[in-house]
Amino acid sequence: MSSVTDNRHNETGVRAATRAALDVMLADAAITPSVSGRLFQPRAGARLAAALVGRPHRVARRGGELGVELARVLTG
Length: 76
Description:
The chain is mainly α. Helix content is 89%, strand content 0%.
């Protein structure tokens, strides 16, 4: 085999391994209840909500900018 073929094979193997690892992580998160507690931190969510409530104009402006950007993406 040439080195180009070897590199492509290794690259494909790395992608497959990455996908497999992600599949395992997502399955574990779906099955194990304790994982969801680690992924969602109530205190952090409360702090984020408080910060958003404290700046309604900024949140509305950024939300509008996000909507415009999403529309650009959808229209190509």
